[in-house]
Amino acid sequence: MADHLSDQEQLQVIKNWWTQNGRYLLICIAVSVSAYLSWQWWTASQQQHAEQASAIYSELVASVVTSSVEPLSSDELTTATFLVEQLKNDFSDTAYAVNAALLQAKLDVDQGDLERAVDALNFAIDNGNSDIQVVATHRLARVYLAQKNMNEALVLASYDKNDAFASKYADLRGDIYSAKGDIAAAVAAYRQALSDMEDGDGIQRNLIEIKLADLSASGE
Known about the structure:
Layout: H1 7-64, H2 74-90, H3 95-111, H4 114-127, H5 130-146, H6 150-157, H7 166-180, H8 183-196, H9 202-218
Helix pairs in contact: 1-2, 2-3, 3-4, 4-5, 5-6, 5-7, 6-7, 7-8, 8-9
């Protein structure tokens, strides 16, 4: 039908359409452009955020690299603590903050500050993914065991959300029962640990067998 309209009539049709729909079209374009620019800004912001966290975490690791060879000095500990707190406070939504908390817990245990280790591990549990939670929960139970907080340790050692850690958790329960003097329960837990253990864990298997031998000797 448009083929039969004159140029003037076609122009008038376009004008009428623009009058009715032009504002809506401009709004749609503006919203689309704004959304695109916002997405670009958010992506760049997230990348910058992650890069900042990575740089701080790298500095943290560098500051404690000597801890596996010799104890950290007070200045090195102060620096490490400052960096960990910076990651936890400003970058808690990143994996770097969680890994920093796990590192802090190790340093705290090495320094004998078990209460601070508990706080650091709870942060990792609250903010980490499922794999981190399994590791942090296991370590927290170990800290509770060191504090002789047997009930709390045993509750955490009952964690069963990851089959790959089943043997380690059973071994942990054995240690807790052994510390409590419940020899029968300890033996059962260690045997369960051996049953759940993968073939490649030769060192861990030997350690558990030594524990079982010691319990057998003590029961004689």
